[in-house]
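Two records follow; treat each independently.
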Amino acid sequence: MLFESLAVRDLRVYSQPLGGRVSYYRDYDKLEVDAIVELHDGRWGAFEIKLGTATNVIDTAATNLKKMAALVDDDRCAFLAVLTNGGMATRRPDGVDVVPLRMLAP
């Protein structure tokens, strides 16, 4: 929980100068996404925050993000990303980015 809280705090700090806000997503089917960053112009991106870089952890998080994005019928989604505590930044074949927390910057 500490890593997730730190990551959400960083997302808030970095999105505020852009007029963005950070929220959490959970629906009636218990589908959850840790952080949604929405900009004032309607563009948004979604983050699953994971402590660990194991392939199965990243795969599950990416699947979760893709499920949520499929529920939203618009073209304003800028990115889907799994935010991790380490490793290398990559883009998966399914289009989901894997980003270590240290890569976030204003």
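The next record belongs to a different protein.
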Amino acid sequence: MAPVGGTAVQDHVALAEIELCGELIIAASAAEERLSLASIDEVLKVAEEREASGD
């Protein structure tokens, strides 16, 4: 049960993970076949994250 005072705590990492899971679910439901690893990486924007982190 949520506190009466309305002090909701947001976990930004958890929210980001939920959003990514949602993106994967949408991509998988729209695909005619199983998603390839490359397709999953594209949905999760793995290449963009690697470039941003300098790897």
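Discussion point: The chain has three helices and no strands. How would you locate this feature using only the token line?
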